[in-house]
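STRUCTURE:
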């Protein structure tokens, strides 16, 4: 799992990873094409077997299929010669890809207005604690720049004193994904449900 020092570094790594994934797409097409050919071959074989009324041919097929060891090496050699490699080894899949840490890490926490103030590092990258929809983007008095996420568990969570980057109203954000970057060394969280402010201690370790 990789940690990042800035939003720019995270986005750069993410873009590089997307480019690598684009290079792997031809491999997927190749696999689909290969599976289609195998399926077609099986269908043709079954049709030939069912439609064949010659007893000698049936006996030959029965002998080859049920009583003779299949020479996979020979089949592979024939396939490579006539069709190509089963797995194109020149198309390499990346062993690892950049993953943003989904853990919220802070040095200390203190009550702040209706929520909690978390002591974090400068320019700390803030993760989404629970998946949901962004229902507010803007300034809140006493909190600064704020993002409010309506979480799938029914709780609205305010993330304050953070930059929002490319986020837009009504974007869906996944748990553990990058939400923003702290403006100072503090991040404010407020838990709210149906107009009632909740005790942050029930939701933070």
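SEQUENCE:
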């Amino acid at each position: 799992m990789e940690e990042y020092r800035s939003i720019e570094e995270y986005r750069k790594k993410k873009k590089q990873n997307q480019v690598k994934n684009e290079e792997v797409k031809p491999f997927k097409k190749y696999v689909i094409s290969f599976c289609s050919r195998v399926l077609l071959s099986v269908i043709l074989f079954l049709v030939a077997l069912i439609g064949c009324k010659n007893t000698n041919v049936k006996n030959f097929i029965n002998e080859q299929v049920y009583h003779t060891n299949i020479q996979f090496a020979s089949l592979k050699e024939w396939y490579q010669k006539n069709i190509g490699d089963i797995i194109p080894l020149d198309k390499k899949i990346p062993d690892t890809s950049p993953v943003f840490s989904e853990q919220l890490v802070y040095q200390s926490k203190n009550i702040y207005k209706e929520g909690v103030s978390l002591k974090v590092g400068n320019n700390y990258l803030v993760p989404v604690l629970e998946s949901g929809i962004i229902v507010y983007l803007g300034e809140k008095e006493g909190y600064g720049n704020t993002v409010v996420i309506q979480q799938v568990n029914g709780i609205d969570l305010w993330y304050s004193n953070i930059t929002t980057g490319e986020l837009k109203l009504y974007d869906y954000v996944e748990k553990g994904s990058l939400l923003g970057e702290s403006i100072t060394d503090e991040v404010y969280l407020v838990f709210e449900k149906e107009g009632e402010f909740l005790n942050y201690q029930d939701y933070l370790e």
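REMARK: The first helix runs from residue 7 to 51.
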